[in-house]
Design goal:
This protein is of the alpha+beta class and about 475 residues long. It folds into two domains: about 260 residues, Aminopeptidase, CATH 3.40.630; about 210 residues, Alpha-Beta Plaits, CATH 3.30.70. Helices cover about 30% and strands about 30% of the residues. It is built from eleven helices and 25 strands. Strands 1-2-6-3-7-23 form a six-stranded mixed sheet. It has a five-stranded antiparallel sheet with strand order 18-19-20-9-21, covered by helices on one side. Strand 1 and strand 2 form a beta hairpin. The chain is elongated and about 85 Å long. The two termini are about 40 Å apart.
């Protein structure tokens, strides 16, 4: 069985087509072409704005002409993460899918169900002749994952509807009516390099096997951050006179880093103490993360001789990495179980003659977001880094009294005989930006169940796709 054999058949067939189209963030040319060709093949009206967003429109089916226009929104890019032992080029290679115990997964890479399954649902609805609905605008935005560029730059006249259904949520049975805002903070360290004299042993320390995940949805799950784990040991190991050659960890601002490594030089007379200390650290860290990270690996191997960075920068960098806060900063006081504010030490890279430390802050409270941003800035600045911030994006303030939410709840209860959870999400959605451009919008977000998003463990629960599809169809009939 392949995913094309699953039900509802049309949505899975289209999702299979989408997995064959490379669509990294900021490189969406091929998926844009796919969407335009899809619209042309079904004689549907479409529009593309300057930044690359695409909207495909379809009129109402017979008898539903009086219903207001509904916008179905999803993003076309995907997070591109893979295990280090997997050969895959996200610019050219299709995603290889498989079915495992009721879930759809990919072969060692992210699946792209975030937000490919939302795209598939919108496209299926546009071409399914059995579906009854009012006028539809299916909006597909670019670059949601690395900056919400498409939503920020949405062209004039792209949307006319009053009601927007965002198809980018990941928990079946839950309706989302709010999300966190976010901002990225980056620190840049200058450094000099030097070649050490004889008398040093060179080691490569690697962190792997962590689950990773979405830096919003998964930040409260007690997962390990590879950058923090590695930096903690190196900071302590400074007592052995180590010298740092390179530190490389994490990749994406919105993913909890799963892997990191460093190359260090250790004086020969302290090498044994260094190795013993690492063995003790491995034992302690594995015990600490045993409940959440059973596959954590910390490896030590010999490395080739290489230049090291200057001692002042090494001290400043490791102090900053240890001192930077990471994880949940505060829980919501108004919505039980919701993370209010968090920060993620996303990546550390040597690039273009500088060391770049990337962090990402989220909060449903604008003041708390800025305070956390300033905390990160202060630590980096005290360590001597040059600091800059992204433009950031607004949160989406919940509107529990909206008609669209009421219709969504009614639809779910009618279909499944139970009450859906209504909540906000700590992840960032594009809805806040749409609301700035179209303040009249009423919005709700829902989707099937996904787990391990933004990591190679990303998986989509098959049975929930049918419930997601049925809820979407029922809601479209209830919009008044």
């Amino acid at each position: 069985m392949t995913i094309k054999d699953l039900q509802p058949k049309l949505i899975w067939e289209i999702f299979d087509q989408i997995t064959a189209v490379p669509r990294p963030s900021k490189h969406e040319e091929k998926i844009i072409e796919y969407l335009i060709e899809f619209a042309k093949s079904y004689s549907l009206d479409y529009q593309r704005d300057e930044i690359g967003n695409v909207v495909i429109r379809k009129g109402a089916t017979a008898g539903y002409e009086a219903l207001p226009t509904v916008i179905l929104q999803s993003h076309m890019d995907m997070v591109c993460e893979k295990n280090s032992d997997v050969a895959h080029n996200f610019d050219t290679d299709p995603i290889r899918t498989k079915i495992v115990d009721g879930w759809v997964k990919a072969e060692g890479t992210t699946l792209g169900a975030d937000c490919g399954i939302g795209m598939a649902a919108a496209l299926a609805l546009l071409v399914d002749p059995t579906v009854e609905h009012g006028a539809i605008e299916a909006l597909f935005t670019v670059d949601e994952e690395t900056g919400l560029t498409g939503a920020f730059n949405l062209g004039e006249g792209m949307l006319t509807g009053k009601y927007l259904v965002n198809l980018d949520s990941e928990d079946e049975g839950e309706l989302f009516i709010g999300c966190a805002g976010g901002v990225d903070t980056l620190g840049y360290f200058d450094y000099a390099v030097e070649t050490l004299p004889a008398g040093y042993e060179y080691y490569r320390i690697g962190i792997s096997g962590l689950k990773g995940g979405h830096s919003g949805d998964d930040i409260d799950k007690g997962l390990g951050n590879a950058n923090k784990i590695l930096a903690s040991f190196l900071y302590d190991a400074a007592r052995f006179g180590i010298r740092l050659g390179i530190f490389d960890g994490g990749n994406l601002r919105n993913a909890i880093p799963r892997e990191a490594y460093a190359v260090v030089a250790v004086p020969e007379h302290t090498a044994l103490l260094f190795e013993t200390s690492l063995a003790q650290y491995v034992s302690a860290v594995k015990a600490l993360y045993a409940p959440t990270e059973p596959n954590l690996k910390i490896t030590l191997g010999q490395a080739a001789l290489q230049p090291v960075i200057d001692e002042d920068t090494q001290s400043a960098l490791l102090s900053a990495l240890v001192g930077l806060p990471n994880g949940v900063m505060a829980m919501s006081q108004t919505m039980k179980g919701l993370v209010e504010t968090s920060t993620n030490l996303a990546s550390v890279k040597f690039a273009d003659g500088k060391i770049v430390v990337t962090t990402s802050q989220r909060s449903s409270v604008e003041r708390a977001k800025r305070d956390t941003m300033h905390s990160i800035e202060a630590v980096l600045a005290l360590a001597g880094a040059t600091v800059e911030h992204s433009d950031g994006y607004p949160g989406w303030t919940p509107n529990p009294d909206s008609d669209l939410l009421r219709w969504s709840v009614e639809s779910y209860k009618e279909l499944f005989g139970s009450e859906p959870k209504v909540r906000a999400i700590h992840a960032g959605l594009e809805c806040g930006l749409f609301l700035e451009k179209y303040p009249h919008l009423e919005m709700v977000s829902f989707g099937p169940t996904l787990r391990g998003v933004h990591s190679p463990d990303e998986r989509l629960e098959i049975d929930t796709v049918d419930k997601f599809w049925r809820l979407l169809l029922e809601l479209l009939k209830r919009v008044k």
